Amino acid sequence: MTTIPRKGRLKIFLGYAPGVGKTYQMLDEGEELRRKGMDVVIGYFEPHGRKDTIAKTEGMEFIPRRNVEYRGAILEEMDLAGILRRKSQVCLVDELAHTNVPGSEQAKRWEDVQMLLDAGINVLTSLNVQHLESLNDQIWQMTGVRVRETLPDWVVDQADEIVVVDVTPRALRHRLERGVVYSHDKAEKALENFFTEQNLCALRGVAMRYVAHEIEEKLLVEEAHKSATESSAHADHEAALRKERLLICIDERPSAAMLIRRGRRVADYLRADCIAVYVSPDAGLAHLSQDERDAVEKHLGFARNLRIDTNVIEGRDVAVTLVQFARAHQATQILMGRSASNGGKRRRGGSTLQRVVRLAQDIEITIVAERRR
Amino acid sequence: MRAPRPTPEELLRRVEAEEEQARRGRLKILLGYASRVGKSFRMLDEGRRRKQRGQDVVIGSIQAKLGPDVERMVETLEIIPGLKVRIDGKDDEVLDVVSILRRNPQVCLVDELAHDNPPGGRHPKRWQDVKELLDNGITVVTAVNLQHIAEHQDAVEKITGKRALQTVPEAFIRAADEIVIVDAPPEALQQREPGSAANTRRLSELRELALLLVAEVVDDQLQQSLESRGVSTFLGSQERILVCITPRSNTKRMLDSGHRIAERFHCDFLAVYVRQKGLGEADESQVESHLKLARELGAQVNILAATDPAAAILEFARAQAVTQVFVGHSLRKRWRELLFDNPVDRLIQSAENMDLRIFPHPDPALEPQFEPHREPDFQSGPRRASS
Predict the structure, then answer these.
(1) How far is A251 from chain B (nearest CA, A)?
(2) What is the structure's pLDDT at B6?
(3) Average pLDDT, whole number, for chain B?
(4) In whole angstroms, what is the distance from residue A207 CA to residue B219 CA?
(5) Nearest CA in chain A to B343
(6) Band of the pLDDT at B117, cuts 50, 70, 90?
(7) Nearest CA in chain B to A217
């Protein structure tokens, strides 16, 4: 007897750069599943003019893309409704980190994929490591490239399978030189900028460590499950004892995004709760300019997107208000940016940061560096 | 940061090394974490693609048992058959080094790098055969599994309970010009051969080891390539944690936390102690036990002598490319010192490009009460006989 799974399985082909062969391997697997008699369709495929890859799609069923009008141009996007109607067993979706054309039902392709999974469709998809939100700052530091299209790590955490698609940087650069990945003029620029041997090596190391870490996480979670079922009361007790709670203190400065990402990452490895808070000296952010208010709203939205609870609290003395909030919410760690140590209103008794450090001697405080290149 | 200009001798050595490298064939290794991940397929696929691009490719050795996909690929390539030998009633095949050298192809594909040759042959081990091919300018593409790397045998045995008999030294793997991981999720291996949950778990553990091994090799290669271009900046994909030891801070908790992160993230873990004059006996012995604990937990322990602890720590952290510094909350009591001369504050102000994590005290009684009667000190400082 077989039961119909309520939710589709997600399999991610992860590479360290464009051109390593993710799409090719994804199509290869799709073909194999089809040979085994499964009902497979291509939901979205980005050919990039790569001949080998295009040849791979021969004989496969495509769900036609839908046209979207945006600022007078006709653009093509994945037809989510069409795929849901077709309801195949397996759907192939290229480039998980893609941002949909404004006005689409959902802002991001990973959100579309989420709906496919909810509908019980198994999804094979491709992703480059630089799109992971938690690695954004590190990758910028290593390569000088600030990746704009990102996706929250939890999307990848929930994948049933991740496969590393690996080639050596040398082989990848040869592919570029031969014009396999991009057209020749575009390839030349790419080789000088992003695809330097140094960048590729660094990204490759990051990708392997990331997947190794994901594997270890899964093993640990399984272990915890096992011991929880074995001695549930004991495990609950221990979990309660060790539960940490992080408090991220954000401000209107651009560096807050870095702080939120760092906080998410720390919370993930501590398996801690995570809350973000903005302390406003006046009601309704009245002390801020419109731009600054927008910046705060953006940061709060970004935090929520990474599944961090957000709060705006009021208090004339930012440091005191923050520490009181931390105590009331039993925070075990406060994360602040270094920028809180300068600028803004200086008070007697030092900067906000200095005062928080002094007031909260019973709480761990992490001052997150504004990393520079 | 730039390294000093190389001396003429150093330049000559580099040129000679490069020329030597150019004469040698290139070694490319496909590493799998277990059997059946598809290494042979990848190796032959690479041979096929190289041949399409006009390279002269031969097969030096290939496994006897192959799937139909692989068989088809073998047929498109020239094979130099191995030498058949019969040892103790078992058939074995040895790489025919002499014939390969005579044929002198650009690229030779060699499966099962860890194979042991029967006694009386040219070399006891297949990897030594491969080395001879490389020395003669032939590029070798080869495949090996994690359990066959000598230095990883113990770790693999711990996971699987089995020990591979045939091995390759890790140094040979690390010296490869290129290394590629052939990855597949454990679930995929088990589709071909259904296994238990315990088996999936074992495979996952092996997979993690293999990924970390390749990540290390990749980081090393990056470092070497930077150094060869005279760049001495540390640019790995790694975190580096530094714990600052003082007599009365909650050093145990800092070390435990640092150790845990280092374990989980496979990153570097350092501890530093700035020697202070005039410590009482109790504090001295605290420091000694902290240092001992740090060593036990695998930290690289450093003891510095300096009059300005904050400056010394910062300088050390910068030189060591530290990314996170752990310190204890300052125990300064007087507001004036709290404001103007507090080492933790100075770290906060100057520790750029690294995170600073400040830990609470172990003993609430030691927390500052803002009473104006204590001597200024660093962290907890010298304990007075009266207190």
Answers:
(1) 18
(2) 67
(3) 82
(4) 12
(5) A354
(6) very high
(7) B264
Residue A252, Cβ density class (10 Å: 0-12 exposed, 13-18 middle, ≥19 buried): buried
* CA–CA dist B255, B264 (Å, integer): 14
Q: Could you tell me the residue range of the domain that residue A102 belongs to? A: 10-216
Tell me what pLDDT residue B379 has. 38
Percent share of chain B, pLDDT over 90: 40
Helix %, strand %, coil % of chain A (to 5): 45, 20, 35
Is B348 within 8 Å of A372 when comparing Cβ atoms? no
Half-sphere exposure of B202 (CA within 13 A, CB side): 18
**Which residues are CB-contacts of B161 (< 8 A; sequence separation ≥ 6)?**
none
| Mutation to test the B interface, candidates A122, A135, A210, A364, most B Cβ within 10 Å | A364
Helix (H, G, I), strand (E, B) or coil at B61: strand
Residues B160, B296, single domain; the answer is: no
Whether pLDDT at A352 is above 80: yes
The nearest CA of chain B is from the CA of A67 a distance in Å of: 36
Rounded distance between C-alpha atoms, residue B348 and residue B345, angstroms? 5
Q: Do B181 and A164 touch (CB under 8 A)?
A: yes
| Model pLDDT for residues B273-298, shown as the tens digit of each residue | 998 777 888 888 889 999 999 999 99
**Is A288 found in the same domain as A183?**
no
Q: Contact at 8 Å (CB) between B245 and B272?
A: yes
Tell me which residue in B201, B356, B367 faces A219 most closely, judged by beta carbons: B201
In a domain, residue A208? The reply is yes
Distance of alpha carbon B120 from the chain centroid: 37
For residues A351 and B339, what is the distance between their CA atoms, to the nearest angstrom?
A: 10
Strands (DSSP E) contained in A131-181 are: 161-164
- Please tell me the predicted confidence (pLDDT) of residue A348: 57
Range A57-64 contact pairs with CB under 8 angstroms and sequence separation of 24 or more: A57/A27, A60/A27, A60/A30, A60/A31, A60/A34, A61/A88, A63/A91
Q: Which residue has the higher pLDDT, A54 or A184?
A: A54
The C-alpha angle with vertex B220 and arms to B216 and B226, in degrees rounded to 5, equals: 145
SS3 of residue A75 by DSSP? strand
A186 lies in the same domain as A80:
yes
pLDDT tens profile A300-312: 999 998 889 999 9
Location of structure tokens 């045939």 = B166
- Look at residue A4 and tell me whether its pLDDT is greater than 60: no
Q: Looking at residue B123, which CATH number applies to its domain?
A: 3.40.50.300
Task: Tell me the CATH number at A347.
Answer: 3.40.50.620
Overall number of domains in chain B: 2
Establish if A310 touches chain B: CB-CB under 8 angstroms. Answer: no
For residue B266, the enclosing domain spans: 240-366
Between strands B83-87 and B90-94, the pairing is antiparallel
Report d(CA B195, CA B218) in Å as an integer. Answer: 32
* Mean pLDDT across B242-261: 87
Best-predicted range by mean pLDDT (B11-15, B91-95, B113-117, B234-238): B113-117
A211 lies in the same domain as A277: no
The SS3 call for residue A2 is coil
- Contact status of B71 with chain A (Cβ, < 8 Å): no
- Pairwise CA distance, residues B213 & A102, whole Å: 43
Q: Is residue B372 part of a domain?
A: no
A143 and A61 belong to one structural domain: yes
pLDDT digits (tens, 9 = 90+) for B219-230: 888 877 777 766
The single-letter code of the amino acid at B34 is A
Residue A331 touches chain B, beta carbons under 8 Å: no
A212 shares its domain with A259: no
